[in-house]
Design goal:
alpha/beta, Isopropylmalate Dehydrogenase, 2 domains, 349 residues, globular, 12 strands
Length: 349
């Protein structure tokens, strides 16, 4: 197995792992940005999590304690990280960032926050890549903060793919009724057109199809959105539909994918009714997500990695941290979907 050279100084205490995998799914959970709601929501979600997995929070103990103090009422019992504990349902803590001085509540600066967020993420990804966990659930981070110490960082999806040596991975969003794929992810709108290729649209839509098939949709009905208004109006408003998107759709159809389009995004999304389609491929971030987030909580997942990765569909929400008003629904869904995908993956072996 490959063992990564960490991109930051190694703050992780090495722990000896047993050779045999336990029967329960083993899920690593990152702490996200320490100033946000991520770890708080993880603790609340784990309080009601099903006993179908062993959950390992990857975080500094002091940060975990800060978040536990924020939460009134029942909290999960958290055990020390060990092979014996990981063989049964429950929650454990894998300590990271031991060389970083953890500040008191409400005293986090951006650099310390970014270092702790990356330490947790790097550890969770490296351990999972090496087979010590089956999946990673990532709490939200602040991309702009991390970019101040890691300038090429564009988001956790691309960063995890890079860390795993994967050229690219697909950003998907799942809800039981409808799922979404993004052809381009965190790009300026001015860069979207030049980033689109027939291959990229095909691969993105294939990933969406595979995810839905994995979750039980034998022949999912898929729609692909146009890039330009009115789907380009036969080239007068843009040629991407004619030269890139339609050829990709033709290739997908020749491979048996049940897909149609390209549809003008405004009229298609305005008229879309429940049950019309199982999944939609959007050309860029806001084209798909402005509509999709109005449907309610969903799960962000990365397709194409050697392991399962899910995440809640929102950011760190600094203004809600400690208030008790942040909604844990998306975090609960991310935990549940991770277990489901791990179980389905094991069943195919």
């Amino acid at each position: 197995m490959v063992c990564f050279s960490p991109l930051l100084p190694n703050f992780v205490k090495l722990i000896t792992m047993a050779a045999n995998s336990p029967s329960l799914p083993r899920i690593a959970i990152t702490n996200g940005d320490p100033r946000g709601v991520g770890l708080e929501l993880v603790i609340r979600a784990l309080s009601a999590a099903p006993a179908s997995a062993h959950w390992t929070i990857v975080a500094p103990p002091a940060l975990l304690e800060q978040n536990l103090r924020r939460i009134p009422g029942k909290c999960p019992k958290i055990l020390a990280f060990s092979d014996a504990n990981r063989s049964k349902s429950g929650v454990s803590l894998l300590s990271v960032a031991q060389e970083i001085k953890i500040p008191p509540d409400d005293s986090w600066d951006e650099q310390t926050s970014a270092q702790v967020a990356l330490s947790s993420l790097n550890t969770a990804v490296d351990y999972t890549y090496n087979g010590d966990f089956d999946a990673v659930v990532t709490a939200p981070v602040a991309k702009s903060t991390i970019r101040k110490i890691l300038h090429h960082f564009t988001g956790q999806t691309g960063y995890i793919a890079e860390r795993c040596g994967i050229p690219s991975a697909t950003m998907l969003f799942w809800r039981p009724e409808l799922s979404l794929a993004l052809v381009t992810q965190h790009l300026p709108l001015s860069a979207v057109s030049s980033a689109l290729t027939v291959q990229l649209i095909e691969e993105t839509t294939q990933a969406l199809c595979q995810m839905l098939q994995t979750l039980g949709k034998e022949s999912p009905r898929l729609a692909i959105l146009a890039l330009n208004p009115h789907a380009g109006e036969e080239g007068s408003l843009g040629v991407e539909e004619r030269e890139i998107i339609s050829p990709a759709i033709a290739i997908l159809q020749s491979k048996g994918v049940n897909v149609s389009g390209p549809f003008p995004a405004d009229s298609f999304l305005a008229r879309l009714k429940p049950g019309d389609y199982d999944g939609i491929t959007a050309m860029y971030h806001d084209q798909g997500l402005i509509f999709f987030k109005r449907l309610g909580p969903s799960v962000n997942l990365t397709w194409g990695l050697p392991f399962v990765r899910t995440s809640p569909d929102h950011g760190p929400a600094f203004e809600l941290a400690g208030s008790g008003s942040a909604d844990p629904t998306s975090t609960k869904m991310a935990l549940q979907l991770a277990v489901q995908l791990v179980s389905l993956k094991r069943g195919r072996k």
